[in-house]
Amino acid sequence: MRIIIADGYEEMSNKAAAIVRSQVVLKPDCVLGMATGDTPRGMYKELIKMYENKEVDFSEVSVFNLDEYCTLSRENEHSYYYYMNHNFFRYINVKKGNTFIPNGTAEDIEEECRNYELQIKNRGGIDLQVLGIGANGHIGFNEPDINFEAETHLVELDETTIEYNSRFFSSKDEVPTTAISMGIKTIMQSRMLLLLANGESKADAIYKAVKGKICPEVPASIIQLHPNATIIIEKNAAKLLR
Ligand code: F6R
User: Fold this and answer.
1) What percent of the chain shows pLDDT beyond 70?
2) Which of 37, 76, 129, 183 is the most buried (most CB within 10 A)?
3) What residues are annotated to the active site?
4) Given the DSSP bridges, would you call strands 31-34 and 128-131 parallel, antiparallel or unpaired?
5) DSSP labels for 73-126?
6) Which residue CA neighbors atom 3 of ligand 1 most closely?
7) Is the pLDDT of residue 108 over 80?
8) Is the pLDDT of residue 132 over 80?
9) Is 90 exceeded by the pLDDT of residue 242?
10) What is the average pLDDT score of the chain?
11) Whole-angstrom Cα distance, residue 1 to residue 3?
12) Mutate to test the pocket of ligand 1, among 44, 141, 168, 233 (most ligand atoms within 8 A of CB)
């Protein structure tokens, strides 16, 4: 596991974008795994700048997102479908048919999960998966549990996640309580992982993920077992590591 400590959010974001760009330059038709939330916003902004400066071309790239809320339509501004289109896809030349986000309103969620796995396999698996981390140690929406869930599955969101994510909604009651998430096995099968973390609120989760016991109660701890994982930690999130 490579650990890079960044001096600030901008440095974390720029380094992450540089790694994504390298992946696309090395393999123009690569498969990227992407995350939503506050953490990767700066990375997306930087990647858009790189695209505008013709430093990266997404025309052959495929993108799979980690997760999506159940019950929110794709037009809902809180959906991750909306987030990806508004923060990233509409500014770059990725083909719409090459972007994949689980459909949280599918009639048959189990079938949707199976199809999602199949689509990832059909594209040859994920080359580079970008991850954020929850203050409770979740990755994707794999919440602390007594088991690791393997593949894409339906999750019940943790009370702490609902509370934390309520900042994007007008009230906590509006936050969906379930979601579809890539599972730990799917994430671990990515050829490279890039975990980003910033802010003091992530310091405890980062400490446990990097130095703690590998256990499903801290889902992110599994990345200690990944053969090609890089973690870029902004200094406040890294404060317990020193
Ligand atoms: C989002 C995701 C989540 C977030 C995590 C951190 O697609 O999979 O695991 O990465 O909840 O969220 P932020 O970045 O908002 O602190």
Assistant:
1) 100
2) 129
3) 67, 136, 138, 143
4) parallel
5) -TTSTTSHHHHHHHHTGGGS---GGGEE---TT-SSHHHHHHHHHHHHHHTT--
6) 140
7) yes
8) yes
9) no
10) 97
11) 6
12) 141
Torsion angles phi and psi, residue 63, rounded to 5: -130, 130
User: What's the gap in Å between 84 CA and the centre of ligand 1?
Assistant: 13
- In degrees, rounded to 5, the angle at the alpha carbon of residue 156 between the alpha carbons of residues 69 and 199 is 70
Alpha-carbon gap, residue 233 to 25, rounded angstroms: 24
Query: Whats the size of the chain, residue-wise?
Result: 242
Please state, in angstroms and rounded to a whole number, the distance separating the CA atoms of residues 223 and 242.
20
Distance 54 CA to ligand 1 centre (A): 29
Pocket around ligand 1: residues whose beta carbon is below 6 Å from it? 35-39, 66-67, 132-134, 138-141
What band does 237 get if pLDDT is binned at 50, 70 and 90? very high
pTM of the model: 0.97
Non-local CB neighbours of 227 within 8 Å, separated by 6+ positions: none
Reading the block at residue 152, the tokens are 């894409």
Q: Which residues of 64-91 are buried (b: 16+ CB within 10 A; e: fewer)?
A: bbbbbbbebeeebebbbbbbbbeebbeb
